[in-house]
Amino acid sequence: MKILVPLKRVCDPDNANKVKVSGDGKAVTSEGLEWKPNPFDEYAVEAALRLNENAAKNEKLGEIVVCSIGVADVAQTIRQALAMGADRGILVTADDGALESTVVARALKALVEKEKPDLVLMGKQTVDGDSNAVGQMLAEMLGWPMATFVASISTSDGGKSLNVKREVDMGVVTLKVTTPAVVTVDLRIVSPEAVKNGATPDSHKYNEGPRYASLKGIMQAKKKKIDQLELPALGSDATPATTYPRFELPPARSGSCTFVESVDALVDKLKNQAKAF
Amino acid sequence: MRDFAEQEIAPVIQALDQNEEFSIPIVNKMGQIGLFGITAPPEYGGAGMDYLAYCIAVEEIARIDVGHAITVAAGNSLGIMPIVSFGNESQKQQWLPRLCKGEILASFALTEPDAGSDAGASHTNARLKDGRWVINGSKLFITNSTSSIAGLCIVQLVTGNRSSRNKEISCILVPNGTPGFIAKKMSGKMVWRSSDTGELFFDNCEVPEANLLGKRGEGFHQMLHTLDGGRLAIAATSLGGSQGAFELALRYAKERRQFGRPISTFQAISFKLADMATGIEAGRALLYKACRLKDNGRPFEKQSAMAKLFCSELMGRVVDQAVQIFGGYGLLREYQIERFYRDYKALTIGEGTSEIQRIVISRKIGCFDV
Ligand SMILES: Cc1cc2nc3c(=O)[nH]c(=O)nc-3n(C[C@H](O)[C@H](O)[C@H](O)COP(=O)(O)OP(=O)(O)OC[C@H]3O[C@@H](n4cnc5c(N)ncnc54)[C@H](O)[C@@H]3O)c2cc1C
């Protein structure tokens, strides 16, 4: 199976430097931030690797192309996915400020038409904007079947369909989608037995979480190809559907903490002091 | 590498340290991500990276735990590299692929009860009899030598006498499990409690003549060569340990409030942290320079000894000041810093004490050419 995995970098929430808003409130500034791959996108890379390998025999079964739309530095994020085991990268350069969900979805559509993957596997959302929109928009634009918030995948019909479980508020929805399709993944897709591809023995248990890039993987990634092109070269419409008139930071939390002796005292404080109910 | 250390080692290190336990599951995982054979050639299963990359990897592990960094440093510098540098083709084929996967570990046995810094004073010997080496004697303080995955020991042995005062020294490969070879775990260590240290006994232990590493009589030279490279990894361990201790102290100093403000805003504390950060930058510059010299095939022995000396002693100053910043809490296990405080101490002793490094450096700068 040929799988396209879109990747985005996000600022590392654990880093001491936080996002700031520019003086005029027109933009979010990213100076001094540390970057890491969006966690859900890393899960998508891991799920793609699991779908396209025989883990028992250490064999590859298909091609995984990772792509990203963003500034030139994003090549580093793509390189990390190549070190995990993806085969090839595509970097579409664009100014971060010019990107919003619609522009990204249109660009991805153009890439899908070029690459013709059997599956677009992506994170359910990014942890910066939290829009949770690109996967759905892309499926709609392509007219492809879609499954979102997927926590497990098993292939059937020789890889032509995917049986997926989606985690939603009411519980778990089981769906069968035929490929080509767009699938967005949730956290539990990287649990030890979440992906079954018919090649790796069903009894195989993966380590929890996305795999670490091995040192050999890092060496090999240096030789893998990353095609680079500019956004206009894709020919997709780059006019944003949403614009952001103004940004402001949430008010700082006052951060006081008091200890109470009993449940009754807590209820009393919630009711009379915090006026919570 | 940082994610690996934070996610796989950090959560269990306190228990491993407390129980003085060597974790085979972690070693297996370290093997999976390629931490063994980092500088070994890819045709034998190595990653084929340079010493700079190797040292950065070791640094990242040591930032979380010095003991595991030592398992990696000894596994690579002392276990794998002697075979890469001096082994013949069949020895490389036989041992390197499994060593590079981390399935088994090799150790390097030099130190004896009466031969520490004076490594040439070893007594443990091998005599050639009917095409086999017969080995007798003992070694101690040998890293990676006793666990169930310890597969091979590279033993430095006296194989003859050139003259009454000049011994012929050679290295011989002795697989763990060979009859007459007993490896016993040394317990009760103050330092590196998650690393495996052993005492070895050879009692008429026999191995084939072909287990000789390189040429007969070159053991001393092989050992010096091995330690020149090994010192870089010990320096990296010390640097990573310093970094880890510094980060713990900085975070604590910003959180701990006394006299109504974070203690990091007292000049007495902030200057300690500034000194730590400065020392770490200096140590890193020195170590990376030594690595670059080695990676470019230039003489690096002086800088390697300097980096080992400087970084290990740096860590001593850093952990001392770090515990000071933690106050009484720094003495409690759960605050982690006390482990760094203990672990530093073997770094100024193993692979050549600070005194021996100063001897090496003073020779290199010509003090004795008079
Ligand atoms: C945890 C641990 C792991 C180890 N792992 C290994 C291993 O894998 N393989 C291995 O072979 N060894 C290993 N060692 C042994 C280590 O290399 C020796 O401890 C070290 O070389 C010092 O030898 P020693 O302990 O006998 O001290 P000694 O040589 O007895 O030294 C005692 C003191 O005298 C000083 N001294 C000695 N000679 C001189 C001199 N000429 N001038 C000035 N001062 C001098 C020393 O610097 C030191 O301060 C390990 C040690 C430890 C603690």
CATH topology name of chain A, in short, is Rossmann fold
Q: How many discrete structural domains of chain A?
A: 1
Q: Remind me, CATH topology of the largest domain in chain B?
A: Butyryl-CoA Dehydrogenase, subunit A, domain 3
Beta-strand portion of chain A reads 25-35%
Mind telling me the CATH class of the largest domain in chain B? Mainly Alpha
Written account of the structure:
The complex is a heterodimer of chains A (277) and B (370). With 277 residues, chain A is an alpha/beta fold. Chain A has one domain: 3-Layer(aba) Sandwich (Rossmann fold). Chain A has helices at 39-51, 75-84, 101-115, 134-142, 215-221, 263-273, and strands spanning 3-7, 9-11, 20-21, 28-29, 35-37, 53-54, 59-60, 64-70, 88-93, 119-123, 146-156, 161-168, 171-178, 181-185, 195-196, 226-230. In chain A, a hairpin with a 4-residue loop joins strand 11 (146-156) and strand 12 (161-168). In chain B, a hairpin with a 2-residue loop joins strand 9 and strand 10 (261-262). A 4-stranded mixed beta sheet of chain B has the order 1-4-5-8. Chain B has a 4-stranded antiparallel beta sheet with strand order 2-3-7-6, with helices on one face. In chain B, strands 9-10 form a two-stranded antiparallel sheet. Chain B folds into 3 domains: 2-105, Acyl-CoA dehydrogenase/oxidase, N-terminal domain (Butyryl-Coa Dehydrogenase, subunit A, domain 1); 107-217, Butyryl-CoA Dehydrogenase, subunit A, domain 2 (Beta Barrel); 221-364, Butyryl-CoA Dehydrogenase, subunit A, domain 3 (Up-down Bundle), CATH 1.20.140.10. The N and C termini of chain B lie far apart (48 Å). Chain B is built from 10 helices and 10 strands. Chain B has 370 residues and is of the alpha+beta class. At the A-B interface, helix 5 of A face helix 1 of B. The complex binds flavin-adenine dinucleotide.
What is this entry, summarized?
Chain A is α/β, with parallel strands linked by helices. Chain A has helices at 39-51, 75-84, 101-115, 134-142, 215-221, 263-273; strands at 3-7, 9-11, 20-21, 28-29, 35-37, 53-54, 59-60, 64-70, 88-93, 119-123, 146-156, 161-168, 171-178, 181-185, 195-196, 226-230.
